[in-house]
Amino acid sequence: MSSTFLNKELPIILIFATGVIMIASYFVSAPEIYLDPLASNLSQAASLVAAYATILGIVTLAIIHINHVVKRTKGQWIYSIVALALALLMIVVGFIGELGTHPYFIWLYQYPLIALDTTIYSLLAFYIVSAAFRAFKVRSVEALILVVAGIFVMLMNAPVGAAIWSGFPTIGNWIMSVPNSSGFRGFIIGAAIGAIAIGLRVLLGKEKGVLGRS
Amino acid sequence: MSSLEKLEKIDRRIVYLILIIVVAAVLLRPIGLPIPISASTKKYYDAINSLPPGSVVALGVDFDAGALPELGPMLEATLKMLFNSDKKFVIFSLWSGGPAVSTIYLNKLKDLIESSGKKYGEDYVLLPYIAGGETAAAALAKDFKNTVKNDYYGTSVDKIPLLKNINTAKDFALLITITAGTPGVEEYLRQWVSPFGIKFCVGALGVSAPNYMPYYTSGQIYGMIQGSRGAAEYELLIGSPSTAASSMDALSAGHIVTIVFILLGNIVFVLRKYSRKEVKS
């Protein structure tokens, strides 16, 4: 078999066949040709591949950090040791008893990990206030509309809004339900049409990016 | 440097300090502002409440540690409502951190579970993380038991009485996802709601809620809890005010600080613009 067939034609045939089965099973029910079980098996296979991809991710991360430690990358290698040690700790503790259910694992997740993760997430509040002060300037009519809409929606979300004036939640809800919804709907429809176009190009073998660099 | 210029170039650490002081002050001395219930939260509550006894709810815990402060109270309140009701439920997750988060809340509600008389495997079940994003959502919807072989504790799904009659998404009376993003709302809409016509409720981050509004206004999402505010409303609806309700005054304070800084920034901007014009003329 030629390398062109193995590298290009066979993957395109597989992509086309898989794509047609999945699309057909979404729109039609055909028990005579076992379409649903076939599509279901393909979905489960994809789920398995994704699970293995997680392992690949861990391996890649480990390689990157081991390289930093070996090369003593300035300003990085100490953090790489911390990352590797903590990843190893979570993996080892996760394997004690039933996978990921041991109280030690839950403790590690509940106390250090959640506290660290939520701290990072909460920092956003400070950046948002600082950035709003510096960048949210009324330089044009559009910026003015944005600022006014933003303030109404913020006062709709916080109970203080309704306490100041009962109109804030009403107007805020209208902004969310009408202009916001219609704007997002436009994005969603545009993105969906784009996805259909890209999907068709991939199925027909016109989009070669999915085949990799070779 | 003029005073306006100084104000415009204020050290960001002062802004951070003001925010900390205001939020901390309100947390320590709550004002107790009333929390009106929004229509979307009421519909989320009604969706669960109106289910016939014995109905099985699919509860997707699709978030991990980072989103816990905002989504954790929604999950806790949803679990409280389900444990206090005559409904059964299956917890699953398309996010790797989901099962650990669920375990934390199930441990927290141990006393309630015991007093409710609900039995694991018969009334509720916790499934492990299912990898694959949208493909996993599709696989679950089409063939639930062949996609998840065991529960989170390693018991085969064939030995779990609650899952005996669960084969596809059609076998659930309601789908709920409490989600921090992708995979989440859109994946379920495409793979569960459109093909199987299942009723769908969402618990979303405040920042994600505007993205989901088109689906809510069109009716594809039946009820939606929007951020901490929605979680507080829901806690009040189930009669169990907790973390979210107690943080509402702090949320109000944070929003007011932000609005004050936006207005202050704009006042300085306009005054500087006029002062520059005057110098030129």
Descriptive overview:
- The complex is a heterodimer of chains A (214) and B (281).
- Chain A is mainly α and 214 residues long.
- In chain A, 81% of the residues lie in helices and 0% in strands.
- Chain A has a domain at 1-94.
- Chain A has helices spanning 3-27, 35-71, 77-94, 103-135, 141-157, 159-164, 167-203.
- The longest helix of chain A has 37 residues, at 35-71.
- Chain A starts with a helix and ends in an 11-residue tail after the last helix.
- The model of chain A has no long low-confidence stretch (mean pLDDT 90).
- Chain B is α/β, with parallel strands linked by helices and 281 residues long.
- Chain B has 2 domains: 3-30 and 250-280; 39-246, Rossmann fold.
- In chain B, 53% of the residues lie in helices and 12% in strands.
- Chain B has helices at 3-8, 12-28, 39-49, 68-83, 98-108, 110-116, 134-142, 144-147, 185-196, 209-217, 227-237, 243-246, 248-280, and strands at 56-62, 88-93, 124-129, 174-179, 200-204, 223-226.
- In chain B, strands 3-2-1-4-5-6 form a 6-stranded parallel sheet, with helices on both faces.
- The radius of gyration of chain B is 23 Å and the shape is elongated.
Short description:
Chain A is mainly α and 214 residues long. Chain A has helices at 3-27, 35-71, 77-94, 103-135, 141-157, 159-164, 167-203. The model of chain B has no long low-confidence stretch (mean pLDDT 94).
Quaternary form = heterodimer
**Backbone structural class of chain A:** mainly alpha
* Count of structural domains of chain B: 2
The average pLDDT of chain A is 90
Structural descriptors:
heterodimer; A: 214 residues; mainly alpha; 7 helices; B: 281 residues; alpha/beta; Rossmann fold; six-stranded parallel β-sheet; 53% helix; elongated
Q: How would the blueprint of this fold be written?
A:
The complex is a heterodimer of chains A (214) and B (281).
Chain A: H1 3-27, H2 35-71, H3 77-94, H4 103-135, H5 141-157, H6 159-164, H7 167-203
Chain B: H1 3-8, H2 12-28, H3 39-49, E1 56-62, H4 68-83, E2 88-93, H5 98-108, H6 110-116, E3 124-129, H7 134-142, H8 144-147, E4 174-179, H9 185-196, E5 200-204, H10 209-217, E6 223-226, H11 227-237, H12 243-246, H13 248-280
Parallel strand pairs in B: 1-2, 1-4, 2-3, 4-5, 5-6
Helix pairs in contact in B: 2-13, 3-11, 4-5, 4-11, 7-9
